Amino acid sequence: xxxxxxxxxxxxxxxSLNSLGIVQxxxxxxxxxxxxxxxxxxxxxDLTYTRTxxxxxxxxxxxxxxxxxxxxEKAELREPSEEERMVIFGIHPCDIHALQLLxxxxxxxxxxxxxxxxxxxxxxxGVSCHPDEHCFCKSTGTSYATGGFDLFLHELSDGxxxxxxxxxxxxxxxxxxxxxxxxxARDIEEFKLSERKRLDxxxxxxxxxxxxxxxxxxxxxxxxxxxxxxxxxxxxxxLVCPTCRCYxxxxxxxxDLKTGERVRIWDSCMLRKHGLVAGGLNFRPTRVERLINRxxxxxxxxxxxxNCVGCGRCTVYCPxxxxxxxxxxxxxxxx
Length: 335
Description:
This protein is α+β, with helices and mostly antiparallel strands. The protein is built from eleven helices and twelve strands. A hairpin with a 5-residue loop joins strand 11 and strand 12.
């Protein structure tokens, strides 16, 4: 189902989202970077952004969360209270694809009740975007989302071309049906033309055909040592990646040694401790081995989807200026 939302009705549309839950929208952070800001106002909203530093997966798989509190003496566990419904407004196609990958892991493969509950009470409203020199989602097939969202807005000269992607999307429409108009032939033509122009804006390309096999054969490639010598091993590439899903779980005791809490926190395969096991052994003791593991993970098709969505975050925010696409091209002997 397709509808049109005129520019003059954007305010009414945005205000109506507050009835669905807490609105998280893209806003400028510190003058240059963007973040999804809670209770973002229409004036703060910036739909022209290219990427946020931390991906929207943070709302479904929290960077740090208390799974439960415990009392050993009373043999009691107390889980956190119910969470509020949420609207993530302005999410881009690459991040929608990333959440679909996480869905396969945390809903289908290893059901995670915390993730599943948040997914159920979260509305996703996508917005089309324009690439910069670091975007290569066209190469990974994630520059356009055909599903995984509730509503998706494509900018037109006088408003937005709206695609409805779920039952929850219909729920949003029903709340203010009067502001949505039927699309006309000229709207459809403008939508098709704008999408063609947007795809032509992509300049960075990565050949992903057969990449899994090439990575398998590249274990001794000198590019890994060359890159490891530059890498700080800080794990920023993992923290900003929308598809990374490793986490650690720790129990923290209170001073009474009877009560405490179990906490889940994002982890990074680029950190030495990630491969550390009992007895002090480490199955990825060197930075070279950790780099190989990370790049093989991003080039994986284990879940039936490419594990990199081409958002460019790892390149943009790497303090050592390591370029993900450049490394992959060297592995392919294209550089």
